[in-house]
Design goal:
The complex is a heterodimer. Chain A is α+β, with helices and mostly antiparallel strands. Chain A has helices spanning 9-14, 23-33, 121-124, 142-146, 173-187, 214-218, 263-275, 291-297, 323-338; strands at 39-42, 48-52, 60-66, 71-77, 83-88, 99-103, 107-111, 135-136, 154-157, 162-164, 167-170, 195-201, 222-230, 251-252, 255-256, 259-260, 281-282, 304-312, 319-322. Chain B has seven helices and 17 strands. In chain B, strands 1-2-12-3-13-16-14-15 form an eight-stranded mixed sheet, sandwiched between helices. In chain B, strands 4-5-8-7-6-9 form a six-stranded antiparallel barrel. The chains are: A alpha+beta, B alpha+beta.
C-alpha cells in the first residue's frame, strides 16, 4: 500500500457543497479519480458513481461517502439589503454567530450579532434564533442585494483548512473525511476480487436521500459506508458519554438510528482490523444515522457496515480530526478490500 | 495606502488591552511620514505630534486596544479555559479559532461545541458562558507551551463585502485609521493648533490610558474618536446608520461650543454627519478626558459600526474617510 497523505482533505474541506449543491465537490472528485477507475457516471440525483472491475466479479461491493455538508439557504432578501436564511441539515444556531460565510461558493458575507452592549439581560441569556439572524453582504438595499443573490442560493461557512500537530481543523469533515478516504483508496490503483463501486453521494444531511437511488442502479450485494462521525471527547461531556474519541483509530459502528449493522459485516470489519493490527475503536453511542440505514431499506435491501473517522465539533464551522485516525481508516478499508471474497462471507 | 489596506493592516494586528505594542508599531510606521515627532508613552500609548502655529494644543484620541482573552486554567489532553478581557459575548466565541500568545510563539486552538447529536434536551437552549467554553489546543505543536496568563484573541479574517469592510477590532482600529489619514491631510491643509494624535491603551476595560496622556500634555481641546452602533434599533434614539457619515455626540460629557464648531466645520465643507444624543456617560475615553486637570473641552466623534465586539465588525470605509476629513479640517480653525 502506498503511503497515506490525506492528499485531498484540504481541498475537499474548503469546497462548498451544502446538500443539493454538491456540484463543486463532485467536479473536484471526478477530475481527480477519472483516470484511476474503469468508468464513471453521475446519476439523476447527482451521485457520482465510479466503477472498478474485480478480478473475480462474483460480488458487487459498494463503498459510499456523502459529498454534502450542512449549511444554509437564502430564504429572503430584506429591505435593508441583508439576507434571511434557514439551515440545511442540522445546524445549531449557537455555532453560527460572528462567522464569515460564502454564498454560492464565492460571494463573501458575515453573520453578525447584536452588540453585547445593546443586549438586555434576557437577550444575553437567550440562544440565537435563525429567524433573527442575517447575512450581511455589504449591500445597502434589497435592490442592491438582489443583484448579487437570489432566493434559494446556498450559504456555507467560510473556514480555511489547517493541519498541524497531526490534527486537521476545518469545516465539513462530516463527510469530506469519508470522501477523502475513498479517494485515497482509489489512489492505490489496485484491483480486488469484487466488483467495486465508489459512490460519492448527495443529500445525506437532509435525510439520507442520495443513497436511496443506489439499489435500483447497482443491485449491490454488500456496502460499506465511510463517515466522519461525532466524537464527544471534550470537557463538555464525561467520558462515559463520549461517542468516539480522537487518536484511537477508525470507529466501527454496531448500531445507529434505524439500523443494526449486519452481524457478519460488523464482525468481519473487526477481524480485519485485528488481523492487520490496525488501531480501531467502537462507536459507543447509537445516536445519529448514516446512509447504511437507507441502503438497508431500499430495493431488496443492502447489508452495510459503517466505519468512521472520529471528528470533534461536527455540524459547526470548525471541526477537528486526527490524521492518524484518518490514515488508519484508509488502511482498514484497503485491507477489507484486499480480503476480497473472504470478507463478510 | 488606501483606506481598505490601512484597515486591513490595523485589524490584523493583535493587541488586547494591556498588550498594545503590536498595533502601536503598525500605527507608528504609518503615521511617521506625516508628523513632526512620534513618541511612546509609559502607559502604552503612542503620541504623534504635528506642530501648528503654537497657539493651542488639540488632542485627538483613539484607543488602540481590542477585546481579547487571558488563559485562566489548563486542563488535561490539550484543553484550556479562558476569561475575557473586555466585554465579549460568549455566543460569538463558539467555533472560533483562538490565537494564544505563548512564550514560544503563537499557538492556535479552536473553541469546540457539542454537536446536536450528543446534546441532551436540557442543553439545547442553554447559552454557554465562560464556565462552559473551552479552547481545544490539541491541534497546535505549541499546546504544551501554553501557560496561565497567556493572552489570546479570536483569529480575525478581514473581508471586503461590496464597498463595506468587515473584520475584528475595527472597534477601534477604524478610528486609528481615521487619525492616520487625518495626519496625512495636514501636509496639505495646514493645521493651526498643534495636533497631538494619541493612540491610547486599555479603553476596553475602562482602564488607564487616555487620561494619563491628557494630563501630561496639558491639552486645551480634545476630540475622542471611537465607534458607535450602526443600523441598530435603540429605543428612544435616532437610528445611526453606516454609510451616512461620522456621528457627533451631544451631552454632558461634550463641550457644547466645541460641538458647534465641529458642526459648523462639517457644514461648511460638506461632511455629512449624524447626531447621537448622549444623556449621560458615553462609555468612551471622553468621559474621563473631560475631567483631566482643570477640565478639557471635549468632543466625541464616532464611526458607525455594525456587530460591535464580534469578529465580524462591519464599517463603511467612506465613513472612516469622512471622519478623517472632519478631523483634519477642525485642526485648521480658530478654536
Amino acid at each position: 500500500m502506498k503511503g497515506v497523505k490525506a492528499l485531498y482533505l484540504k481541498e475537499l474541506s474548503e469546497l462548498d457543497g451544502v446538500s443539493g449543491d454538491e456540484g463543486r465537490v463532485r467536479k473536484f472528485i471526478e477530475e481527480k479519480i477519472k483516470d484511476k477507475v474503469d468508468s464513471l457516471k453521475v446519476d439523476v440525483l447527482g451521485n457520482l458513481i465510479a466503477f472498478k472491475k474485480g478480478t473475480r466479479s462474483n460480488r458487487k461491493f459498494v463503498l459510499t461517502a456523502h459529498m454534502d455538508e450542512v449549511g444554509f439557504m437564502v430564504t429572503n432578501v430584506e429591505d435593508d439589503g441583508t439576507l434571511s436564511f434557514a439551515p440545511v441539515g442540522g445546524v445549531d444556531p449557537r455555532v453560527v454567530v460572528g462567522k464569515p460565510v460564502r454564498i454560492n461558493g464565492e460571494l463573501p458575507g458575515v453573520i453578525g450579532y447584536k452588540a453585547i452592549h445593546l443586549q438586555k439581560k434576557d437577550e444575553l441569556l437567550a440562544s440565537p434564533k435563525f429567524e433573527n439572524l442575517r447575512v450581511h453582504i455589504g449591500a445597502r438595499s434589497k435592490e442592491e442585494a438582489s443583484r448579487k443573490v437570489e432566493l434559494g442560493d446556498y450559504i456555507s461557512f467560510a473556514t480555511d483548512f489547517r493541519s498541524e500537530n497531526s490534527r486537521a481543523t476545518g469545516k465539513a469533515f462530516d463527510d469530506r473525511a469519508g470522501c477523502a478516504v475513498l479517494m485515497e483508496v482509489i489512489e492505490q490503483e489496485q484491483r480486488y476480487e469484487d466488483d467495486l463501486y465508489f459512490a460519492f453521494l448527495v443529500q445525506e444531511e437532509p435525510g439520507l436521500r442520495g443513497s436511496a437511488v443506489l439499489f435500483e442502479q447497482l443491485q449491490p450485494n454488500i456496502a460499506l459506508v465511510i463517515e466522519g462521525t461525532t466524537a464527544g471527547d471534550d470537557p463538555g461531556l464525561p467520558e462515559h458519554q463520549w461517542a468516539t474519541h480522537l487518536g484511537d483509530g477508525p470507529a466501527v459502528t454496531f448500531m445507529h438510528r434505524g439500523y443494526v449493522v449486519n452481524k457478519k459485516i460488523y464482525e468481519s470489519i473487526l477481524q480485519v482490523a485485528q488481523k492487520y493490527d490496525i488501531k480501531h475503536q467502537y462507536k459507543r453511542r447509537t445516536a445519529g444515522g448514516t446512509d447504511a440505514a437507507r441502503l438497508a431499506k431500499t430495493g431488496g435491501g443492502v447489508p452495510a457496515g459503517v466505519i468512521s473517522v472520529p471528528a470533534r465539533y461536527i455540524h459547526s464551522p470548525l471541526s477537528m480530526i486526527d490524521l492518524g485516525d484518518f490514515e488508519n481508516t484508509v488502511k482498514l478499508v484497503s485491507n477489507i478490500l484486499e480480503e476480497g471474497e473472504g470478507f463478510a462471507r | 495606502m488606501d483606506t481598505v489596506s490601512l484597515l486591513k493592516c490595523l485589524s490584523s494586528a493583535d493587541s488586547p488591552s494591556g498588550y498594545e505594542n503590536e498595533v502601536l508599531k503598525v500605527i507608528e510606521e504609518n503615521i511617521k511620514p506625516y508628523v513632526d515627532s512620534v513618541r511612546k508613552h509609559k502607559m502604552n500609548a503612542l503620541i504623534a505630534v504635528k506642530n501648528g502655529q503654537n497657539v493651542k494644543k488639540l488632542g485627538i484620541f483613539a484607543h488602540a486596544d481590542e477585546i481579547g482573552f487571558v488563559v485562566a486554567k489548563l486542563e488535561e489532553r490539550g484543553f484550556l479555559r479562558v476569561e475575557p478581557i473586555g466585554g465579549i459575548d460568549p455566543k460569538v466565541v463558539i467555533s472560533q479559532r483562538i490565537k494564544i500568545f505563548t512564550k514560544q510563539g503563537v499557538a492556535t486552538g479552536v473553541v469546540g461545541f457539542l454537536p446536536p447529536h450528543l446534546q441532551k434536551d436540557d442543553q439545547k437552549d442553554k447559552v454557554p458562558d465562560y464556565n462552559d467554553i473551552y479552547v481545544d489546543v490539541s491541534c497546535s505543536p505549541l499546546s504544551e507551551a501554553v501557560s496561565v496568563g497567556d493572552i489570546c484573541v479570536i483569529e480575525g479574517r478581514c473581508a471586503s463585502l461590496g464597498d463595506k469592510f468587515s473584520g475584528k477590532a475595527l472597534d477601534n482600529r477604524a478610528s486609528c485609521a481615521a487619525l492616520i489619514m487625518a495626519a496625512s491631510k495636514l501636509e496639505i491643509i495646514k493645521n493651526r493648533a498643534d495636533v497631538y494624535f494619541i493612540f491610547s491603551s486599555q479603553e476596553e476595560i475602562a482602564g488607564p490610558g487616555a487620561v494619563s496622556v491628557a494630563y501630561e500634555l496639558g491639552l486645551d481641546e480634545a476630540i475622542v474618536v471611537d465607534v458607535t452602533h450602526g443600523n441598530e434599533h435603540v429605543p428612544q434614539m435616532p437610528q445611526i446608520k453606516i454609510s451616512e457619515g461620522p456621528v457627533l455626540a451631544v451631552g454632558p460629557v461634550i463641550n457644547r461650543e466645541f460641538y458647534k464648531v465641529l458642526c459648523d466645520v462639517a457644514k461648511r465643507h460638506g461632511v455629512r454627519t449624524q447626531i447621537e444624543p448622549t444623556p449621560g456617560r458615553s462609555h468612551t475615553d471622553t468621559d474621563e478626558v473631560q475631567l483631566t486637570r482643570s477640565g478639557i473641552k471635549t468632543a466625541l466623534i464616532s464611526i458607525p459600526l455594525m456587530y460591535m465586539h464580534t469578529p465580524v465588525e462591519l464599517v463603511d470605509p467612506r465613513d472612516v474617510e469622512e471622519t478623517a476629513r472632519l478631523l483634519a479640517l477642525t485642526s485648521t480653525v480658530n478654536l
